[in-house]
Amino acid sequence: MRLRKALVLMTVVLLSILLGYGIGVCKERASLRTMMQIYSNVLTYIQMFYVEERNPSELVENSIKGMVGALDPFSEFLNPEESEEFSIATTGKFGGIGAQIGIRDNWVTIIAPIEGTPAYRAGLIAGDRIVEIDGKSTEGMKVNDAVKLLRGEPGTVVRIKVYRPVSQKEFSIELVRDTIFIDPIPYYGKLDEKTGYIRVSSFQNGLSKEFSAVLDTLRMRGVDRLIIDLRGNPGGLLNEAVNLLSLFFEPGTLVVFTKGRTPDNNFEYRTIGEGKYREVPVVVLVDKGSASASEIVAGAFQDWDRGIIVGDTTFGKGSVQRVFKLQEGYELKLTTAKYYTPSGRCIHKSEKV
């Protein structure tokens, strides 16, 4: 019964691909049908003759994970438990070490440590490779799998081995997990009588409204020029980046666009509102820990010659993931497009995507 259920699951998945999108060439369709039959036969033989009994649903799940994992570092097939973890990651509060991570050269890599967290206090920096987590190698590991290993109850210990490319040194550290809360604007103030400074740590929900209120306060205190600090900011919500840019540009200004393989993944994002601070001179600070939404903001200021960009080359995370809800709590996080600055520069650093 379990085998039949697993076969039905995989057949439905493959038929959806075949019938929903089509291959367009009869020969390729025949080839896909052949592979579907081969898959069914392999699963049947494993269940009938393999030396140990295996759960067919787990076999199918792992095979789908392998298929999606071969696409790029950011596409993932998530089971219900992993889907819940993914949802927790977007709330701004969780237990862990306090670092945004990504994949670089097939290794789990620090994009940016979050200020005031265990990772930040331990001295981890953007570009550090986490090569082991509690003795387990991270080579080829998906981001979500690394997140599961790094997160845990506050007060528990996680041991990681780190390789630092800038010094070509490897070292091991123990981190005590803590409750992580991300303050999107941890600091703002005046650097002199006319210069304001706003540190933006993430583009989470509500950031643009808080940013506008902070800038209103600084303006009332005499500020007429602004430094926006995006160093170590790993990104976040695209709409918050667009809303922030809307404060500084004429309404309807193109600030970023996406291009995918199909037309329905091609979008243009333009500013809205009155652009009440479009006359305020801006300097944007970035570093190699600035990623995603941070790169979109910096790119728009740079392409429109609206501000001065100061700092290092940014991380280069400019791919778009769309989440597809599946049956029984499963989800597919799939890369569907890439981000481009207004002048047409691709934000994403060239890898497999």
TrEMBL record:
Domain PDZ: 85-157
Swiss-Prot/TrEMBL GO biological process terms: proteolysis; signal transduction
Entry GO terms, CC: outer membrane-bounded periplasmic space
GO molecular-function term, one example from the UniProt record: serine-type peptidase activity
PANTHER family: CARBOXYL-TERMINAL-PROCESSING PEPTIDASE 3, CHLOROPLASTIC (PTHR32060:SF22), TAIL-SPECIFIC PROTEASE (PTHR32060)
Family from the record: Belongs to the peptidase S41A family.
Protein name: S41 family peptidase
Phylogenetic classification of the source organism: Bacteria, Bacteria division WOR-3
